[in-house]
Design goal:
Thiolase-like; 9-stranded mixed sheet; single chain
Length: 484
């Protein structure tokens, strides 16, 4: 065969070879890694103890005995301890009339503490940040909070910025998804993700029960993360994003209105948590799991689940047929609840650790029950809720920090993150641990040896249980009342 003919025959093979090299090269640069993250730990003078919480509640002159009793029940059952943090305006007694500047200062204190520490520890200067994503749902500033960070750190003129508001507690995974999509089209980039919530302008001072509840759950916190798709930094990274799924039920009125900022009858703005919130969360959660399960679980588990589901449907169908035929007494369909129960997919076959949003004790319990998780699996979320409360979108990262501080995370481990947010949204993602993590130096460092504590009992019931015995017609809290 002469050379020209050989060349013509080899062209398709050469084209395929070049295409394969380009595809592999492109995929290598599309990966999304967390190089490092910094959890914000406010100063001790912003810590809420039981005594001070009682004082804050007493200052609200719009509350009656019924509201006090409701708050007592909510706080005692919340799962929150005595070392969470609040904005400074609460300690200054300004929760009914916070200023705009106080809200900005609350964010500045978090921004410049956490970002500075993160950049110093990683050795990445501000000039090497290509993308900045900031999510603070309930504070809109002009210029934006992202611009405020750029101005402070004198970042580059061509930096790409995204300033998210109104995304709620699931916003951090939305921010990560934005970075992930950018990394798919641009290589060798560093991205800084900032996630927090401003409580200063959003403390509710009215007496609507559905809005008072937010004061019991939400606390100050935040997280700064440095993400990259640079292959040179791969081995230095902590986590690699494997999969991320977002579910949004905003088109359904019931889901849209169950978790919303609005005014009460007196015109006071607050965050309404509706009674249909659990139902909306469950539906979003189930739909999200249906989409992400096939992407993160082994084929053998998916096949097992399908076979078991089919078998249970077959047994149920036979049982119903038997009943209709009059064979119900002691037969197949009468007393066999196990066969009639739904098949449960085992997420532990593809997941080593569960990073659950600390929306409240009921949220953690509900997810634990749905996924058949052990107390060991739920411990990071429970302890985070107890120590830091619900810090909105940054909660997931405090849960992750607990796992790291406990030295649970080893190379190759897979971490499943689950978050919920207003909208109503459920977002989830799977991360892989890139290297063994030895505990690090995060917000848990000074207290991790005390967790889990012997008891998570809240002392509020002991101090304020007398409220249950008061007469609504004669009850009043005197101005000089001294909290026990």
């Amino acid at each position: 065969m002469n050379l020209p003919v050989l060349f013509l025959y080899s062209l398709p093979l050469l084209y395929f070879f070049i295409f394969l090299i380009k595809f592999i090269h492109k995929k290598r640069h599309q990966d999304c890694y967390i190089l490092d993250y910094e959890l914000y730990k406010p100063t001790d003078d912003r810590m809420l103890c039981t005594r001070f919480c009682g004082e804050v509640i007493r200052r609200n002159k719009n509350l009656g005995l019924r509201e006090y009793q409701f708050l007592l029940k909510a706080i005692v059952s919340s799962g929150i301890g005595e070392q969470t943090y609040a904005p400074r305006m609460v300690f200054h007694g300004r929760e009914e009339c916070p200023t705009y500047e106080e809200g900005i200062e609350e964010m500045d204190e978090f921004f410049f503490d956490s970002i500075t520490k993160l950049l110093k520890r990683t050795g990445i200067p501000p000039s090497e940040i290509d993308v900045l994503v900031v999510n603070v749902s309930m504070l809109a500033a002009v210029p934006s909070l992202a611009s405020r960070i750029i101005n402070h750190y004198k970042m580059r003129e061509d930096i790409k910025t995204y300033n998210l508001t109104g995304m709620g507690c699931s916003a951090s995974l939305i921010s990560v998804n934005i970075v992930q999509n950018i990394f798919k089209t641009q290589k060798n980039k560093n991205a800084l993700v900032i996630t927090s919530e401003s409580l200063t302008p959003n403390w509710y001072a009215g007496n609507d029960r559905s809005m008072i509840l937010a004061n019991c759950l939400f606390r100050s916190g935040g997280c700064a993360m440095l993400l990259t798709n640079k292959t040179a930094l791969k081995r230095k990274s902590m986590f690699k994003l494997k999969c991320l799924v977002r579910t949004h039920h905003g088109a359904k009125d019931e889901a849209y209105g169950c978790c919303i900022q609005r005014e009460d009858d007196q015109g006071r703005i607050g965050f309404h948590l509706g009674k249909n919130l659990p139902k909306a969360a469950t539906r979003a959660f189930v739909d999200n799991l249906k989409e992400i399960a096939p992407k993160i679980l082994p084929v053998r588990e998916l096949l097992r689940f399908l076979v078991v589901s089919w078998a249970k449907k077959l047994v149920k169908s036979y049982s119903n047929t038997s009943k209709e035929a009059g064979v119900g007494g002691g037969g197949v369909g009468s007393n066999n609840n196990n066969n009639n129960s739904r098949a449960v997919i085992n997420f532990k076959t593809g997941v080593d650790h569960f990073c659950i949003h600390t929306g409240g004790k009921a949220v953690i319990d509900g997810i634990g029950s749905s996924l058949s998780l052990s107390e060991y699996d739920l411990e990071p979320a429970r302890m985070t809720l107890h120590r830091f409360g619900n810090t909105s979108a940054s909660s997931l990262w405090y849960v992750l920090g607990y796992m790291e501080a406990k030295k649970r995370l080893k190379k190759g481990d897979r971490i499943f993150m689950i978050s919920f947010g207003a909208g109503f949204k459920c977002n989830s993602g799977l991360w892989e641990v890139v290297r063994d993590l030895d505990g690090g130096d995060n917000a848990w460092k000074d207290c991790i040896d005390n967790y889990p504590p012997q008891t998570l009992a809240n002392p509020f019931l002991e101090k304020f249980g007398w409220l249950h015995n008061e007469d609504p017609d004669t009850f009043s809290v005197p101005d000089d009342y001294v909290i026990p």
